[in-house]
Amino acid sequence: MKRPGVRPGISRLSLQLFALLAAVSVVAVAATAWHIARALETGFTGYLNAIQGERLDAIASAVAAHYRENGTLETLRGDSWRQILRGADPGAREAPRPFEMDTAPMDRPPGEGPQGEGPPGERPQRGPRGPPFEGPGAGPPRDLLALGPRLTLLDAESRPVIGRPLPSEASAMRRDIEVDGRRIGTLLIAPLPRPVDARDLQFLTTQRHAIATTAGAAVLLSLLAAIGVSGLWSRRIRAVERVTGRIAAGELDARVDDDSRDEIGALARNVNEMGDSLAKLERARRKWLADIAHELRTPLTVLQAEIEALIDGVRVVDAAALQSLADEVRQLGRLTDDLHLLALSDLKELPLEPRPIDAAAVVRRAAERWQLQARKAGLVLSCEADARVDLLADEGRLTQLMDNLLANSMRYTDSPGEVRVSLHRNGGVAELVVDDSPPGVPAEGRAGLFEPLYRPDRARSRAKGGSGLGLALARAIVEAHGGSIEARDSPLGGLRVLARIPTGVAP
Questions:
Q1: Which of 89, 128, 136, 207 has the most CB atoms at less than 10 Å from its CB?
Q2: How confident is the model at residue 248 (pLDDT cuts 50, 70, 90)?
Q3: DSSP, res 126
Q4: Dihedral pair phi/psi, residue 7, rounded to 5°
Q5: Which among 151, 171, 199 is the end of a domain?
């Protein structure tokens, strides 16, 4: 038979944790990789455009020098322009063939090649970017940024000298060419939107592959970590689940072996504390049942013995015998009433009818009512109370509280002795104090005074009488009114019981 709460197989929580961690890891890694790839391409394009700007400056300087030497820009067409481009492009200097581009102005007759080369069909064969090949095995010259086909040179009147007008000059990179403080022309080139050279594209492709490989490895590692973490968390939670199942099945000594400082460790500690509390409650329940059975057995045994004596004729059926039986029945009735009230108190259903009363008057009446009992016990009972203490409380329960406290002191105070009662208002709290003379209660015994059927020592033993429920009922009454009660050493040498009850009315 399986214990409650223990489920075989793969943990749903483990699967959920794995799915969550895996999804977060994959999304995070993928987003990071995409961002890095985009940033790489954007940054590399910016780098190429920066180089393009530097070369544009070099071309502008070379054009200005050419103008100083020739006095015109018209002579730039042909070899002069190609030499300027090669001078501005270090890669072109290493090319086996000179770079060639279209240098014809916009008004060139249709069908005529650049610089009288003839129709387009008769032009020399071009490489990927337009440079001519001059024979078998000749490689293309290097023009890393493809400046040639994209450059436009305008004269002072913004007329094209070389190249074609750009569709949008506003976004173009431009360099004004000045000679002796006078603008003699302008260079224009569109910025690179993306790398165009095959080697640049190959570089980016290689980097993207590296990023993808790294991202894939990171995802794989994160999935492995997710498996480990989810499995660890699942094992720890299932350990808690097993222990709670054992506790639910009645094994109150089951405990979780997890002392970590995280939330699962805190849960394990709470489960262990719950087990301790349940075990304590179970022991208290068994002791409570045993004590109740013992307390009920005493008056029932006396009743049975007296009734059998009357039946056997050992005792005469007279008023004294009947009074003895009535006293035992009354004692039994009080005991059952007290047990009933304690049960209601544990259920938070102790009947109360609070209304504004003068608590000082209730305390003084109780003290006067117990004066005769105190004298019979050889005790001096005194009462000190404020003139008036307004309290929102149940007067019957407050009277019962006083009777229980005074009965406890009368029963367990040696003669000759003293019992002193006081009631004072302290802010919004009414403080009721009952002091008695020896014997007292040791500090280690006072903790259980307000537990049902508790007797700390021989000085306050069952031989003194009583059910052992008086102080437990006193605590129930005080707590039902929202107050607190505690036991201390009395300045008279015995026990002090201090009850604090909120007044519930304005001072």
A1: 89
A2: confident
A3: B
A4: -120, 125
A5: 199
Give the residue with greater pLDDT, 207 vs 94.
Answer: 207
- Please give the distance of CA 482 from its chain centroid, rounded to a whole number: 33
State how far the alpha carbon of 78 is from the alpha carbons of 74, 85, 86, 105, 110, in Å.
Answer: 10, 11, 13, 12, 19
The helix (H) or strand (E) run that includes residue 302 is: helix 263-312
Phi/psi of residue 296, nearest 5 degrees = -75, -30
Place of tokens 């059927």: 453
Residue with tokens 């650049």: 114
User: Which residues neighbour 347 within 8 Å (Cβ) at sequence distance 6 or greater?
Assistant: none
DSSP 158: S
pLDDT at 499: 94
Instruction: Give residue 354's Cα distance to chain centre.
Output: 43
Between residues 140 and 89, the one the model is more confident about: 89
Those residues with Cβ within 8 angstroms of residue 351's Cβ, 6 or more apart along the chain or in another chain: 344
Angle at 24 between CA 22 and CA 26, to 5 degrees: 65
pLDDT in tens, 43-68: 888 888 888 888 888 888 988 988 88
pLDDT of 246 > 70? The answer is yes
- Higher pLDDT: 411 or 338? It is 411
Report the alpha-carbon distance of residue 2 to residue 58 in Å, rounded: 86
Q: Are residues 311 and 429 in the same domain?
A: no
Q: Are strands 355-358 and 182-189 parallel, antiparallel or unpaired?
A: unpaired
Instruction: Look at residue 141 and tell me whether its pLDDT is greater than 50.
Output: no
CA 218 from chain center: how many Å? 27
Among left, alpha and beta (phi > 0; psi -120 to 50; other), residue 453 is left
**Domain end (from 176, 199, 222):** 199
Range of the domain at 417: 355-502
Task: Give a yes or no: residue 294 inside a domain.
Answer: yes
Domain co-membership, 318 together with 414: no
E-assigned strand segments in 336-457: 355-358, 379-385, 390-393, 417-426, 429-436
Q: What is the rounded CA–CA span in Å between residue 22 and residue 443?
A: 59
What are 318-371's pLDDT values in tens digits?
Answer: 888 788 788 778 777 777 776 766 666 565 667 788 899 999 999 999 999 999
8 Å CB contact between 476 and 345: yes
Count the alpha carbons within 13 Å of 455 in the hemisphere toward its beta carbon.
18
**Mean pLDDT across the chain:** 78
